[in-house]
Structures
1.
Amino acid sequence: MDRKAILNELKKVLAPYTEDKTILEGINEQTDLIKDLKINSANLVDIIIDAESQYNIEIDFDAAEKMYNVGNCIDVIAEKMNRTA
């Protein structure tokens, strides 16, 4: 799965936690989950759990700490997917 495909799937994971759904259409790798998408920090845990389920991966604490913007989320997901492939 390439970065664009991961991004498209990630939008689906982020959608329930993003109040303004129109922002999701324009997200890119620099989009900050908290500042730009207005996702609260408590929901970040839910997003990680949903991403684990969506991509059939396990995200450890160290990797989860890196997931503060879209690009980092893609990096972590791609890395974990490559390990399980």
2.
Amino acid sequence: MSEEQEESLFEAPPIAEQERMVEAVLFASVEPVTVKELTDRMPHGSDPAEALVYLKKRYEGRGVHLVKVGDAWAMRTAGDLGFLMQKETVETRKLSRAAIETLAIVAYHQPVTRAEIEEIRGVSVSRGTVDQLIEMEWIRFGRRRMTPGRPVTFVVTQEFLDHFGLENARDLPGLKELRSAGLLDNRPRPGSDAVNENDEDESPEGQNELFED
């Protein structure tokens, strides 16, 4: 068999067909899909990265967009059409101040250790709150610090980025956006006189203060 005949056996599908394949995988996948995962699924010689470029352009201005989440890709409803999904959306309870502060510190200061979180918050961080944020898959363990004791660090997850429609942590919203999303209220910041009277210091268990009543 000649080299030309051998190569023809592994000829990649036309880019339009590759685009259809990528679209099908992303449409059927619950979780965002990486380029490597697409490469593993598609025929030999395919270039899913190039197909993603064409697919993203084709969905511009449509009701569904192709968005990048961390190092993966997903199909998501256009942001301005979110109101159409309200009837299908389950109302969630707000995170408590202790939990949202811990989550925000991890997001804005990652990688960060428990001691650094406590230093920024000014109060201790219970194991329960951290464990439940991990169970929600919004934060995860990062690399250990090369300092005495080798403390573990925490970073936000791809699920966290996906939930808030972020490509990476640099796209995190400011306080105004967090309040408009209902994740923060207008109560005084921790440390003010109004808060000190009933400060939400965490109990050792910390299991029932992740959410507000």
3.
Amino acid sequence: MTVRIAGAYEHPLRRIPDRTVPQVIAEVAYGALADAGLGPADVDGFFCSEVPGLGSVAMSDHLGLGGLSYVDVTEGGGASYPMHVGHAAAAVAAGKCRVALVAMAGLPLSGQGTTGGARGPEHPYEAGYGITTPAGYALAARRHMHEYGTTAEQLAEIKVAAAHHAQYNPNAKLRDPVTVEDVVNSPMISDPLHRLDCCITTDGGGALVIVAEDVARTLPRRTVKVLGHGETIKHSEIGRLDLTHTGAAVSGPRAFAEAGLTPKDVDYVSIYDSFTITVLMSLEDLGFCEKGKGGAFVTGGTLRADGELPFNTDGGGLCNNHPDSRGGMIRTIEAVRQLRDEAAPEVQVPGCRIGLVQGHGGNLGFRTAAATLLLGAEDA
């Protein structure tokens, strides 16, 4: 049975000071259900994470979801929601539920971010050394530069492509195009990563509706097929950590194998762009270019909507939307738009039939979750 994504909704605002996280989750959940032509009474599977209170119990009550037969609260940071889509597709395919709602929101700009949480077991051993999130990614970037000669200018090409796309998105937080020089001349945050190599922070959220094939046939909306899914966790290996690879080196091949596809079949990629180095290493690990060749691959407009491998055509986490450090949801929504032929006209990929979503959670320099989705247009 082919499982479908029938509804998708991204909150249009990037600063939401007058609402709570549950209120925003409700807005995006109802938005996605309306997009699919369904309502809360149709939902029997609920997927979420980092929800305040008693998680899925309190949130399902708030949303009016009765009769749930499947619930998942997997936490994987920025990989959480590609994970949830994969889990929802498996649950629907197994008959555990028929209409699954995947929803998230976060309000860090308004002081209501939900990712602070309890401290992990690593905290007593690492916190004293002053490590930060940018510093962890900078370690990976510096190692990649050392091993393969990757340059700051090559990393900057990724931001340039994202900014080019964001100018056509009226909801994007940053809409001004930038040049390679703008990126490398922006303030250094953690050597070698400059400010414009780093993602933005926003309030916001999004939701998706995953349904069984027979349900999809009753709906008026164009749907998107879930073709393949893979996930993994890559951690510090007690210090034996290879900083030049991401978890996509494992999750990607699993998703391609399940879908029966190869990188050559992909028309569009949505890659979690927490930092420019995340994108470059993901492209290598997913097989779009050889390891160490990512810098050359992204140079010259490759990632633009009219390039060889269009990426993040909404502006991505670098320019558009990055609610609560969980970019996987918004990456998935833009892939759905592309496969429905509903992206902004200036960046719509002609004949887009196969899309890839890559989520990362955690920190490339220490421990990360990774999830890969392969999605197909309705006629794929």
